[in-house]
Write a structure and sequence with these properties.
The chain is α/β, with parallel strands linked by helices. It is built from 9 helices and 14 strands. It has 2 domains: 149 residues, Rossmann fold (3-Layer(aba) Sandwich), CATH 3.40.50.720; 194 residues, Dihydrodipicolinate Reductase, domain 2. An 8-stranded mixed sheet has the order 8-9-10-7-11-12-13-14, with helices on one face. The longest helix has 20 residues. The protein starts with 12 loop residues before the first strand and ends in a 7-residue tail after the last helix. The N terminus and C terminus are likely disordered.
Length: 371
C-alpha cells in the first residue's frame, strides 16, 4: 500500500470506488484517465447487475466495502453511496488506515460531520469532500481572478440556479432532509462551496432565508438566502428546482414514485457504460440547468454563466480562457494527489462541516412573513 511519505512524482495512487451510481460512474471515468491514479478496485451491492464488461481486468470487483478494504492495493476510497451511509463508510475507511473522498453532501447530519472532523487528524490520511461546483473550471477561474485582485475589493456576490432537479429520477431518500436529501442539502451546498472558494474561505453567516415547497412533493422546491461573509461581503443565493425550460427542450415529466428508482438506475448505468467506453462527455443529468454567478468588485465585475466567464470593467468586456483549469472529478483527484503528497486539501473535513453548518442554518431560517 502506498503511504503519503512514500509517494513520489511518478507514483500512482490506488483508488477504490465504493458505489457505482451516477457519482461513482463519473469518478470512475475521471480516474481511468488520470495520470497519477489507478483504479485498483470497485464495490457495489448490485455488482452482478452492472454493465462492467469493459472494466479493466486489473480493477478488482467486490460486493461490499469490507472486501474492498482488504485489498492492499487500495490507498484511497471514493465513497459514492447514499448520503445516509457516508458517515459509517468514511469512519470504516479511516479506521482501516486509508484516505477517503466523500461525495457531497458530506454526511446526513452535522453531528456525524463533526465526528469525522475529529477522526480525520492523522498526517498520513486525507479526508476530502467532493465533487461540488467549486471544482469546475469556471468557478476556479473566478476564484483565481478575485484572489489576484483583478476586480479590486469584492463587495457583492450573487449565485442563481434554475433547474429541473426535482423532476429528474430520484430515490426516496434523495428528498428526505433527515437523510441528507433535499435541495438545500444537495444543491445549496454547491452554491455555498462556490461562494466560499471565491472568497478564499471566508466564514459565512445566514442573515435571512425563505423557501417554499414544491406543489407536487413535500419537500423544498426553491429558496432565497441572504448571507454575509466575515470580510463584510454581501451574498445572495437563489435556486429553483422545479423548472426546466430555460435552455430549450422539454421539461422532464415526473413519473410515478414506483418508477423513479428504475429510471435512476437506468441513468446511472448509462453513465457507467459511457465512462467505460472512454466517452469524455458521458450522459449528462443536468442538461436543463441554468447557473449564474456574478461577482461585483470596486474595480470591475465577473460573470460565470454555464461554463463561461466574462470580466467587465472600465476598459471593456472580455472573455476569460478556462484553459489550464482541470474540471469536475479530475480536479477532485488533482487535489487528492496534492493532499497526499505535500499539502492538506482545501476541501477537507472541516470545509465539509462548515458547508453543512451553513446549509442547516439556511434550512432553519424563515423570513418574518413566513408562518
Amino acid at each position: 500500500m502506498t503511504r503519503q511519505s512514500e509517494l513520489g512524482g511518478d507514483d500512482q495512487i490506488g483508488l477504490g470506488i465504493h458505489g457505482l451510481g451516477v457519482a461513482g460512474a463519473l469518478m470512475l471515468g475521471a480516474a481511468l484517465t488520470h495520470r497519477q491514479v489507478r483504479v485498483a478496485g470497485v464495490s457495489d451491492l448490485r455488482l452482478s447487475q452492472l454493465p462492467l464488461q469493459r472494466l479493466p481486468s486489473s480493477c478488482r470487483r467486490y460486493e461490499d466495502l469490507d472486501h474492498l478494504l482488504q485489498d492492499d492495493e487500495v490507498d484511497v476510497v471514493y465513497i459514492a453511496t447514499p448520503t445516509s451511509c457516508h458517515f459509517l463508510d468514511a469512519q470504516q475507511v479511516l479506521a482501516a488506515g486509508r484516505s477517503a473522498v466523500v461525495e457531497k453532501p458530506f454526511t446526513a447530519d452535522l453531528e456525524s460531520a463533526a465526528t469525522l472532523v475529529e477522526l480525520a487528524v492523522s498526517p498520513n490520511q486525507v479526508l476530502l469532500v467532493g465533487h461540488s461546483r467549486s471544482f469546475d473550471p469556471d468557478v476556479q477561474a473566478v476564484a483565481h481572478l478575485v484572489q489576484t485582485g483583478v476586480v479590486g475589493r469584492v463587495e457583492f456576490i450573487a449565485a442563481t440556479h434554475f433547474s429541473a432537479w426535482l423532476r429528474r429520477p430520484r430515490l426516496a431518500d434523495e428528498f428526505d432532509s433527515s437523510l441528507g436529501g433535499g435541495i438545500i442539502n444537495r444543491q445549496a451546498v454547491h452554491q455555498i462551496d462556490t461562494v466560499r472558494l471565491i472568497l478564499g474561505g471566508d466564514a459565512l453567516q445566514v442573515v435571512a432565508a425563505h423557501h417554499r415547497n414544491d406543489q407536487g412533493l413535500d419537500t423544498v422546491g426553491s429558496y432565497l438566502a441572504w448571507l454575509e461573509s466575515s470580510a463584510g461581503v454581501s451574498v445572495t443565493m437563489l435556486m429553483d428546482g422545479t423548472g426546466g425550460f430555460l435552455d430549450g427542450g422539454e421539461r422532464p415529466i415526473r413519473t410515478a414514485a414506483t418508477n423513479e428508482s428504475d429510471r435512476k438506475r437506468h441513468m446511472s448505468d448509462a453513465i457507467l457504460s459511457a465512462a467505460l467506453a472512454g466517452d469524455s462527455q458521458p450522459v449528462r443529468s443536468n442538461d436543463h440547468d441554468h447557473e449564474d454567478v456574478v461577482v461585483i468588485g470596486t474595480d470591475g465585475e465577473i460573470r460565470a454563466t454555464n461554463g463561461s466567464v466574462v470580466i467587465s470593467s472600465s476598459t471593456g468586456r472580455r472573455p476569460v480562457s478556462l484553459e489550464g483549469f482541470a474540471g469536475g472529478r479530475t480536479a477532485v483527484l488533482d487535489e487528492l494527489v496534492a493532499g497526499l503528497v505535500d499539502a492538506r486539501p482545501l476541501h477537507d473535513a472541516k470545509w465539509g462541516y462548515e458547508n453543512m453548518r451553513i446549509c442547516e442554518a439556511l434550512a432553519s431560517r424563515r423570513s418574518p412573513w413566513t408562518s
